[in-house]
Amino acid sequence: MFYSASAIDKVIKKGIKFDGIFATNDWRAYGALAALKNNHIQVPQQIKIIGFDDIFISSMSIPSLSTIHQDTEKLAYTACHLLLQLIKKDDSSEIQKKYVLPIKVVRRESTQ
Question: Is there a smaller number of Cβ atoms within 10 Å at the N or the C end of the chain?
Fold first, then answer.
């Protein structure tokens, strides 16, 4: 069982009311979806779910999971570029260390 599935099970069993889940990645969102289904809770009618990553599982699950898409290729390039700068320079104070990369919301069935 996914870690997030057991966490959702505990929340449901405690009777805590909620109407949405924002998971830190799509696998956790999928685990939450599985737990909700096992507890006969309808997604998105009763609870909405959104993940983060936009990996294959988000479009393949039923219902499909809404997610936040990040450009992993640009993320990897930026990280490698920064690492190379840090390796080459003696004075790291001159190197840009904060980057904001664009993301986008991918709306699918789990939030409709």
Answer: N
